[in-house]
Amino acid sequence: MQVTLQMIGACSLVDVVIGLKERQFSKAWVELDSERAEHAPRVFTSIEMVYHVTGDVPKKLVERVVAKSHEKYCSVSNMFNQSVEITWRVEIHN
Known about the structure:
- The protein has helices at 2-19, 59-73, 75-80, and strands spanning 25-36, 44-55, 85-93.
- The protein is α+β, with helices and mostly antiparallel strands.
- The radius of gyration is 14 Å and the shape is elongated.
């Protein structure tokens, strides 16, 4: 389950890095938190993702890239979008 959660983060973060290729940033990472069902099978019920970018990057741009990642490009998160509530937010660090 931990690897699955990490793959959701990695897949989407790659989309973010590719989407920001024309911008100056020094670091990008995603923090993940999840909840799982209490009884077997203990599947994910919700996943919260916090995207961090260090650099001179417009927050609205990062938000658009993250949204597109989850809507279209990240095949890992899209496998879960019908059964798991995935929420996210963006934090920019200058």
